């Protein structure tokens, strides 16, 4: 991996990935492509590579890399705000951006690892296996499903591996505001002395996965045994009420939740990843439980000396 592109590299997962690659592969030349609409330069503190400020759905950034050798592409860039209802915008940015990535990869003979999402599963009440996809609740999930179909059409030409990220949380998400993880939002409320607000009655269960495990899975996917789409989660689900219990323990507090009506009809009340295929294809096994990850996230990041940067909502 001497020459690597990370799209969305100033965003949450992308910046964690770019900095991980820089630290573990110091001889690599890393190019971040990000349009900075929903990201922040603060996430790339200490980054030493190149940055191209561009939307991957456009074509100008391709001119900047067309003569460069590319050994791998990590495609993380995407509109990830599930409340965006502009269907054309969602499809154009997510699908056409990915089409550009795949065409570039074919020309460079470069493998591609890309971010899909558990949103492709829609509303299900059981552990999600990869064959269960294709029933998204919203346009975001549909765009990811179409991306997976597009990847399959290129799979005879290049190595292409999709990762269905479940509910990712961790350092670097503060810039996302209300689109940040529930763990982040609840933690910030409680750190500020407020009662945490959650949808009635806090029994929704999600597979919350730490960004460090997500990065490890993303890098490991380059060595996948085959072209595939696999889940990336913890393999277990945690309710919102349980998240508040964990946060109270970490913060040594006893804040009770405030319940309110869920305004989103497309909301996933349950996600939980079956990791059998991920283990077999990319060797993925999460190192963090949700509780352990929350403790590290809160104590080492949200309550750190840089906490004022981390709690902007």
Protein architecture, described:
This protein folds into 2 domains: 3-169 and 211-235 and 273-288, Rossmann fold; 174-205 and 237-266 and 291-310, UDP-galactose 4-epimerase, domain 1. Helix content is 36%, strand content 16%. It is built from 10 helices and 13 strands. Helix 1 crosses helix 6 (211-220), helix 3 (87-108) packs parallel to helix 4 (139-154) and helix 5 (182-191) crosses helix 7 (240-251). Residues 308-313 have low confidence and may be disordered.
Structural category is: alpha/beta
Alpha plus pi helix count = 10
Supply Rg: 19 Å
Instruction: Give the SSE order as H and E letters.
Output: EHEEHEHEHEEHEEEHEEHEHHH
Sheet-strand content, in percent, reads 15-25%
Q: Give unreliable regions as ranges.
A: 308-313
Mean pLDDT: 94
SSE arrangement:
Blueprint: E1 3-7, H1 12-24, E2 29-33, E3 50-52, H2 60-65, E4 72-75, H3 87-108, E5 112-117, H4 139-154, E6 160-165, E7 167-169, H5 182-191, E8 197-199, E9 205-206, E10 208-210, H6 211-220, E11 228-232, E12 238-239, H7 240-251, E13 258-260, H8 276-282, H9 290-302, H10 307-310
Parallel strand pairs: 1-2, 1-4, 2-3, 4-5, 5-6, 6-11, 7-10, 8-13
Antiparallel strand pairs: 9-12
């Amino acid at each position: 991996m001497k020459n690597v592109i990370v799209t969305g590299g100033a965003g949450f997962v992308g910046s964690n990935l770019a900095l991980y690659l820089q630290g573990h592969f110091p001889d690599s030349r890393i190019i971040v492509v990000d349009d900075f609409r929903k990201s922040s330069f603060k996430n790339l503190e200490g980054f030493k590579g190149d940055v191209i400020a561009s939307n991957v759905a456009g074509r100008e950034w391709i001119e900047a890399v067309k003569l460069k050798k590319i050994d791998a592409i990590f495609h993380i860039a995407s509109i990830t705000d599930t409340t965006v209802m502009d269907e054309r915008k969602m499809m154009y940015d997510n699908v056409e951006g990915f089409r550009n990535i795949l065409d570039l990869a074919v020309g460079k003979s470069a493998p591609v690892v890309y971010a899909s999402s558990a949103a492709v599963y829609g509303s299900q009440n059981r552990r999600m296996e990869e064959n269960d996809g294709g029933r998204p609740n919203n346009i975001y999930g549909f765009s990811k499903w179409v991306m997976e179909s597009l990847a399959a059409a290129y799979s005879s030409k290049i190595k292409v591996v999709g990762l269905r990220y479940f509910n990712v949380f961790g350092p670097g998400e503060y810039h996302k505001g209300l689109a940040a993880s529930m763990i982040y939002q609840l933690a910030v409320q409680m750190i500020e002395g407020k009662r945490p607000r959650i949808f009635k009655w806090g029994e929704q269960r999600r597979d919350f996965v730490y960004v460090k495990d997500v990065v490890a899975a993303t890098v490991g996917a380059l060595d996948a045994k085959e072209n595939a789409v696999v889940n990336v989660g913890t393999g277990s689900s945690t309710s919102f009420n349980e998240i508040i219990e964990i946060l109270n323990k970490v913060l040594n507090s006893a804040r009770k939740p405030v319940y309110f009506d869920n305004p989103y009809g497309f909301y996933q009340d349950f996600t939980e990843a079956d990791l059998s295929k991920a283990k077999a294809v990319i060797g993925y096994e999460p190192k963090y439980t949700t509780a352990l990850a929350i403790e590290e996230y809160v104590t080492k990041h949200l309550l750190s000396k840089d906490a004022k940067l981390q709690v902007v909502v």
